[in-house]
């Protein structure tokens, strides 16, 4: 299930204290749940062949995710997509630890920063771990998401019904509001050396969606409904269009009617001290500072669902193009070295680097891989 639903296992209230650089960096406990992740290819299957997990070096998913652009851009892409899927936002309002902390009066920007960096990083073992690692994390996520159910996803539109974080519908969209934005960010911003970003050929885009179906099914999506091509994904967007929209009421708490976003803002200001600027810098770098160009990278339907007018939606697409020189700089190795550990955690950074090495070796041995659709 998508990381935006995640509930912490530790229930003690945080102690409000000055934030240090070590706090911002964190340790493996921020991301790791249970077993130490085993990287794809570090173990073998029963038949003695390497265990590459759900995906592997011959997949488009690895081509996309192992690109340096994903270190910086994945977080914003996923968040902006999930911000307009109402069932997810209903669960965030009712169950998200940040919401609980806001109601308790202890929410801080450091909490928000931890949440932003922890969420995506916890999913790297699913993408780049071996099969037992992926299955372990999927089972853990399913367990903690099982209680996340509610009768009302949006108080302003009760006719839309409720949500169930481990139900087939939410499992489906938790996956594709994570994977499709990943592909969009790659196509908009990922440089390959000096070669500028470009849209993948149609067959590769279809392969990416087809490969993602394994991930969706592992999380609980209905195998009969998961898409296997971009056309099938587009049809699902049309089928579930009423759940993808801007809403002024989805964050209104069911008991008080107060907006959770306004409450977080109020409590965050109350608990502000100058050391929280360390957390704000990370939030700005990975989310706020690239919001407009990232919206421009997403499909137009997402931009309109965010409440942008048609003119502003067009401007966002232009902003994505104008952002390319900045995107190129952000993908340089000296930038990545500075941010990969903070944004993905020690396990995530290790898995990403290992997957890049495995993929490079595989492509050297199979130079024709990913040059044509499978079976051609």
Automatic annotation (TrEMBL):
<keyword id="KW-1133">Transmembrane helix</keyword>
<feature type="transmembrane region" description="Helical">
    <location>
        <begin position="313"/>
        <end position="330"/>
    </location>
</feature>
<keyword id="KW-0812">Transmembrane</keyword>
<protein>
    <recommendedName>
        <fullName>ER-bound oxygenase mpaB/mpaB'/Rubber oxygenase catalytic domain-containing protein</fullName>
    </recommendedName>
</protein>
<keyword id="KW-0472">Membrane</keyword>
<feature type="transmembrane region" description="Helical">
    <location>
        <begin position="279"/>
        <end position="298"/>
    </location>
</feature>
<dbReference type="InterPro" id="IPR018713">
    <property type="entry name" value="MPAB/Lcp_cat_dom"/>
</dbReference>
<dbReference type="Pfam" id="PF09995">
    <property type="entry name" value="MPAB_Lcp_cat"/>
</dbReference>
<feature type="domain" description="ER-bound oxygenase mpaB/mpaB'/Rubber oxygenase catalytic">
    <location>
        <begin position="101"/>
        <end position="317"/>
    </location>
</feature>
């Amino acid at each position: 299930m998508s990381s935006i639903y995640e509930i912490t296992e530790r229930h003690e209230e945080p102690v409000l204290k000055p934030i240090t650089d070590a706090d911002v960096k964190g340790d493996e406990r921020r991301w790791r749940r249970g077993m130490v992740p085993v990287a794809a290819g570090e173990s073998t299957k029963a038949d003695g062949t390497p265990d590459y997990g759900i995906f592997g070096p011959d997949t488009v998913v690895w081509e996309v995710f192992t690109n340096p652009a994903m270190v910086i851009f994945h977080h914003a892409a996923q968040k902006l997509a999930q911000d307009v899927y109402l069932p997810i936002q209903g669960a965030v309002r009712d169950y998200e630890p940040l919401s609980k902390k806001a109601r308790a009066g202890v929410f801080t920007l450091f909490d928000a920063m931890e949440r932003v960096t922890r969420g995506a990083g916890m999913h790297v073992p699913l993408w780049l771990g071996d099969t037992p690692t992926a299955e372990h994390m999927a089972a853990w996520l399913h367990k903690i998401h099982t209680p996340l159910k509610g009768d009302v996803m949006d108080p302003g539109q009760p006719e839309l019904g409720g949500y169930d974080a481990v139900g087939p519908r939410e499992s489906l969209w938790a996956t594709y509001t994570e994977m499709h934005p990943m592909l969009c960010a790659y196509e908009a911003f990922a440089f390959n050396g000096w070669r500028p970003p470009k849209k993948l050929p149609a067959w590769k885009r279809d392969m990416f969606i087809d490969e993602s179906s394994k991930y969706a099914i592992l999380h609980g999506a209905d195998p009969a409904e998961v898409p296997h091509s971009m056309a099938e994904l587009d049809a699902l967007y049309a089928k579930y269009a009423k759940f993808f929209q801007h809403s002024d009421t989805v964050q209104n708490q069911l008991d008080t009617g107060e907006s959770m976003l306004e409450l977080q803002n109020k409590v965050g200001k109350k608990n502000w001290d100058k050391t929280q600027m360390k957390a704000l810098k990370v939030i700005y770098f990975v989310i706020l500072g690239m919001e407009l160009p990232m919206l421009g990278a997403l499909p137009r339907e997402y931009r309109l669902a965010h409440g942008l007018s048609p003119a502003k939606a067009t401007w966002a697409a232009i902003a994505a193009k104008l952002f390319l020189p900045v995107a190129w700089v952000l993908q340089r190795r000296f930038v990545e070295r500075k941010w990969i550990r903070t944004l993905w955690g020690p396990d995530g950074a290790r898995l990403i680097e290992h997957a890049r090495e495995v993929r490079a070796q595989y492509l050297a041995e199979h130079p024709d891989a990913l040059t044509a659709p499978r079976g051609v």
